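Figure 6 in text form: structure in, sequence out.
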């Protein structure tokens, strides 16, 4: 098994591509070992000293580090990922909730439906290329509230992405949108 790694715009996060499906649907973001209980893979990754966040996407795993140097922890992270997939272990426990996406709900207004559609079709695929994700958390009085995950969380360029990319896109297509804020 060959696992590719890619740098992300966030220097504290690397994107690992195992060459196979990671999450069949949705995504999962875990910021601690306690949050990783639903994922045997993430649980093992948090055992690597220096790992501070694990994000599981469709075909990638973004791993963030604290003060450790990548050349010290990258081999251990690669080893955990390789052992996990070669053993045929599940990425998530069967009882884990399906997360990710901006599923449209019955009570959503037309504006919210348009926001979720643009996020799912234009924004999320683009940020996934950088090892992250952005999820919808609300719309109120012209303000869209989004949560940044994976490589996007704590990224030095996340404010630029949010304000000059996502906000401009949403304002262009949806005149009711005045501002986008991260939560």
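Output sequence:
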């Amino acid at each position: 098994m060959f696992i590719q790694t890619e740098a992300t715009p966030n220097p504290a996060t690397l994107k690992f591509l195992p060459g196979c499906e990671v999450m069949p649907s949705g995504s999962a973001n875990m910021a601690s070992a306690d949050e990783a209980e639903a994922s045997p893979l993430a649980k093992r990754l948090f055992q690597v000293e220096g790992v501070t966040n694990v994000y599981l996407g469709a075909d990638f795993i973004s791993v963030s580090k604290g003060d450790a140097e990548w050349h010290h922890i990258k081999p251990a992270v690669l080893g955990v990922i390789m052992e996990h997939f070669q053993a045929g272990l599940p990425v998530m426990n069967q009882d884990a909730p399906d997360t990710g996406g901006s599923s449209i709900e019955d009570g959503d207004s037309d504006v919210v439906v348009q926001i979720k559609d643009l996020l799912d079709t234009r924004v999320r695929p683009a940020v996934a290329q950088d090892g992250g994700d952005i999820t919808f958390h609300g719309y109120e009085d012209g303000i869209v509230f989004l949560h940044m995950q994976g490589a996007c969380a704590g990224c030095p360029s996340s404010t630029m992405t949010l304000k000059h990319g996502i906000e401009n896109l949403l304002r262009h297509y949806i005149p009711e949108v005045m501002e986008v804020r991260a939560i």
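Caption detail: The chain has four helices and eight strands.
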